[in-house]
Write a structure and sequence with these properties.
The protein has 127 residues and is mostly beta strands. The chain is 0% helix and 46% strand. Strands 2, 4, 5, 6, 9, 10 and 11 form a seven-stranded mixed beta sheet that branches. Strand 7 and strand 8 form a beta hairpin.
Length: 127
């Protein structure tokens, strides 16, 4: 089970941190990812990184969030995060966290690989 928290309403230029707590499995062997779905659009990958066991250190970011968003994990807390900065109105969406088991060096941003999903949290950026 993945439980998300941290969504909200904020103004353009603001920052927000999303959290995703995993249980009962441990995250060490799981790739982690964040996806979002804006109204009227398909769900898209925002960022992902492979498992701690397999990762070569690379991280995927969609071009629209590069330099503004950061994905991270805390295996001791079994939680992973998405730090979002310089938020824009076009970042408004429901954000989902997701995982899949892997020891590959790099994550796969395609959602078909992910088999555990959070419930989604709304992020609204508006003046």
């Amino acid at each position: 089970e993945l439980v998300e928290s941290g969504g909200g309403l904020l103004q353009p230029g603001g920052s927000l941190n999303l959290s995703c707590a995993a249980s009962p499995f441990t995250l060490e062997y799981y790739a982690i990812g964040w996806f979002r779905q804006a109204p009227g659009k398909e769900r898209e990958a925002v960022s992902c990184t492979s498992s701690s066991a397999g990762s070569d250190g690379t991280t995927y970011y969609d071009d629209s969030v590069k330099g503004r968003f950061t994905i991270s994990r805390d295996n001791a807390k079994n939680t992973f995060y998405l730090q979002m900065g310089s938020l824009k109105p076009e970042d408004t969406a429901v954000y989902y966290c997701a995982t899949y088991w892997t020891i590959e060096a790099r994550c796969r941003p395609q959602e078909r690989f992910y088999d555990s999903w959070g419930q989604g949290t709304q992020v609204t950026v508006s003046s």
